[in-house]
Please model this.
Amino acid sequence: MLYVKKLSGEIIPYDESSLRGSLQKSGANDEQIETVMEEINKILYDGILTGLLYEKAFELLRNLRHSYAARYSLKKALRDLGPEGYYFEKWVTKLFQTQGFHAVSGQTLQGEAVKHEIDVVASKDDRLVLCECKFRNDVDAKISVTTPMYFLSRFNDLKNLEFEYFGKVMKPTDGYMVTNAYMTSDSIAFAEKYGIQLISWDYPEKLNIKQLVDDYKFYPVTCLTNLTEDERNILLEKNCILIKDIFSNPLLLDHFKFDEERKKVIFEEVNDLVI
Model:
């Protein structure tokens, strides 16, 4: 049995089926996946860093089709919405809006005891949602049980008060925590007990971040493999958070003065990820 070494230093068994699953989600077909796996097998050795496997798979997918590499890099792309998580909060706000909510980020609400910084406030029908965004830069970061405990105390300080948002006066009805990381089993158990809605990288099973991005084509601009890091950051500064934003408003790229050939390549990747 081969073992691989994670960035944290943890050594785990190499899971070929997990890698294959990630390649399938990239959009590559069976023949292309076999080609990638053959090349990966050539560099495998006991104790290889998982980061090296990721980089090799990314390179191979990008050589096949840029959009394959973009989908494959989703987890990293979400981490690139940092470093402090400001743009992740913007991304979550748009996620609520896609679900039919009115939503706004960066709010300060006065509770019964103290003021609270609320990352996202969203409203739909008779629901007023307070959402805590937990952004993590670490590849394998997990949200411990103390985080939903702390959020529950904040929500309880606000839930009996009325707030006016989007033309309605309501009391908070739902507390959400959204993270690009993983949740510990204790975090999940605590949240389920006290009615906190969790959305993480892989939880819940059918409404996790991976699934939502696939279902709603909700790829952040940091997925784009045909833009440099500086170019992606400029788009974020212009509040262009989603690849969909470029699809809807191609003029967002005019700032860069790209030649026609570069534009063509970028829009091909954009179209692949949105349509």
